[in-house]
Amino acid sequence: MACQNNLVVKQIIDLYDQISKLESLKPSKNVDTLFGQLVSTCLPTDTNIDVTNLSEEVKDMRSNLIKLCGEAEGYLEQHFSTILGSLQEDQNPLDHLHTFPYYNNYLKLGKLEFDLLSQHSSHVPSKIAFVGSGPMPLTSIVLAKFHLPNTTFHNFDIDSHANTLASSLVSRDPDLSKRMIFHTTDVLNATEGLDEYDVVFLAALVGMDKESKVKAIEHLEKHMAPGAVLMLRSAHALRAFLYPIVDSSDLKGFQLLTIYHPTDDVVNSVVIARKLGGSSTTGNGTRGCMFMPCNCSKVHAIMNNRGKKKNMIEEFSAIE
């Protein structure tokens, strides 16, 4: 296994060397091919690699690779958001989201996150904040269209151009144009209003290193409402070469509920936590109406039916 691990890490290092020498990370045949190879190399979850135990040289490479992945992902979203937003006026860009290469992954991730959220919440959230929504806010769109038809989504991004592109995507949709709101701000500057959200999503690319990720989490803990749910993206095994890892120790002030590691082509792990100091209801009742029965149990059933993969979901008991 050690030899196999060393071989896979060498493959990742070779791909990093090629990617780091590219003149541009904007979508092109060469860029798409290299990142496609990188993702394919990092997808297997049966490789027993702990990135915290790697050499300092490989750790530095991983940090740089994550930043390159984030930059390339931003260019890819910007590229497709620009194309979709420039469609003829009589066309709804949301009807063409399937042209985005990873749209099916977002459909799967959105369904997974909705099921896990339903499992840990007694009510339908009336307002959700997504921090780091980017030029193509697919998580908000997927959740709003297919899972939460009465919820308002507030999307935060530090880049005004990203918000302009994202707003253009939903502006022609009679439903989402009313339920998708965009805020241009650094989340670390957002203090008032964060306590109004039932659920806050923190994008994987907000905080590209451990220090900045923890800083963002600490800020949210300080300003979120007691009992509100924080949903984060993390990574597991080789996938940690693509995205930062969120550890339980990073969630001070939160009750850790679940860490879920997908074993299919959904790259990100899902971390769910609840802000301590309150419950999921307010003093005068619930934050919203009750959830309809969901198929959260299917999440466990799917994992259990996969034999060796059934240990990929971790549950944590409530902290009273």
From TrEMBL:
EC number of the protein: 2.5.1.43
The keyword Transferase appears for this protein: yes
Keywords: S-adenosyl-L-methionine, Transferase
Catalytic reaction annotation: 3 S-adenosyl-L-methionine = nicotianamine + 3 S-methyl-5'-thioadenosine + 3 H(+)
Top-level lineage group: Eukaryota
InterPro entries membership: Nicotian_synth (IPR004298), SAM-dependent_MTases_sf (IPR029063)
Presence of the UniProt keyword Oxidoreductase in the record: no
Gene3D superfamilies: Vaccinia Virus protein VP39
Function: Synthesizes nicotianamine, a polyamine which serves as a sensor for the physiological iron status within the plant, and/or might be involved in the transport of iron.
Cited PANTHER family: NICOTIANAMINE SYNTHASE 1, NICOTIANAMINE SYNTHASE 3
Family the UniProt entry places it in: Belongs to the nicotianamine synthase (NAS)-like family.
Protein name: Nicotianamine synthase
